[in-house]
Amino acid sequence: MSKPFFRLLTELSSRKWVSQLTGALARSKISRLFIPRFAQTYGIRIEDAEKHIKEYKSLNDFFTRRLKPGLRPIHQDTTRVVSPVDAMITGIGDIKEGLIVNVKGQDYTIDELLNRSPRTVNYNNGFYFVLYLSPTDYHRIHSPISGDILEKEHVLGKVYPVNEFGLRHMKRVLSRNERLITFIQHETGEVAVVKVGALNVSSIQYVTPLPKTLERGQELAYFEFGSTVVLLFEDGMFEPRSDLQLGSKVKMGEDLGRFLDV
């Protein structure tokens, strides 16, 4: 079957109501019967979960599970930015005149990604990470820095898949999908945490209550299925760890790089 045919099928299925229907099933009590098979299929380490597998009331409850304390230590050096999620790096590099270049063969403008926010100007020559969470991964999202939440925005959109096929063959998925955008102010500068919804993600939720001030590694939000987080750093604010590259896997709390001028 041709790529255009697969693209058409994805276009037809990437409607919010499809994800809402999937989400309703995943939250139902009957879905708990699928938890063991789901964990086995995706190689999920059930021994890392905060609770015993039989204690989860639904597939969604298991999917958004917390981990046992201490399994994701936060890097101790406060001049370092930490990964907000367990993920694979599918995009990394400098932002050049407002453009993120060649994420799976496609370019993105910061203006589109941030829904034309006035804050876009801060990131025109900064740095970015694209962090993809597979169904195998832990799906809670934590703050990469300590700081105050300046602003947050919910951007309505599609729910195209953000896996290899979606990023490569669908048109600018990261800036067309539903997004929760959080701007956080650190003493060195501002960071945008863009949480991108995906096919079968029934919702992206902030933790409640959501504090105004966050510590590095503190819970910020969670996905209800696999998706992506885009991290944006202001101009002249950040230097990445030298060994990180496309395809690198990181864990929540792991060092991503250092703040400049600290």
TrEMBL record:
Location of the protein in the cell: Cell membrane
Pathway entry: Phospholipid metabolism; phosphatidylethanolamine biosynthesis; phosphatidylethanolamine from CDP-diacylglycerol: step 2/2; Lipid metabolism
Annotated site location: Cleavage (non-hydrolytic): G226, S227
Mode of membrane association: Peripheral membrane protein
GO CC terms: plasma membrane
Keywords: Cell membrane, Decarboxylase, Lipid biosynthesis, Lipid metabolism, Lyase, Membrane, Phospholipid biosynthesis, Phospholipid metabolism, Pyruvate, Zymogen
Co-factor: note: Binds 1 pyruvoyl group covalently per subunit.
Similarity comment: family membership: Belongs to the phosphatidylserine decarboxylase family. PSD-B subfamily. Prokaryotic type I sub-subfamily.
Protein's UniProt name: Phosphatidylserine decarboxylase proenzyme
Organism: Paenibacillus pectinilyticus
